[in-house]
Amino acid sequence: MVGSFNANALRLYEKMGYEARAQRDFISFPDSDKVGHWILMAKSLDQFQRKHAPAKAGVGTGFASGIAKKQEDRAFQMTQSSLETL
Mean pLDDT for the chain? Predict the structure, then answer.
């Protein structure tokens, strides 16, 4: 998560291939950061695997890719559930 008020961190996440998936209001308190939003940044596991996998035929396809996608979907659902309780 990154604060919308932290433009440098937001640009860094985007440069590294992360995408905004959700945002929630930042509720400020005395001596806290500026008013803005928390932004949930996420990166596809498939994108990471393609970048770091050895060059072999069929990398990023088939059974292993399906498992990675399910894990990514589950992690996203869990994060969404956590944000909804805020």
Answer: 76
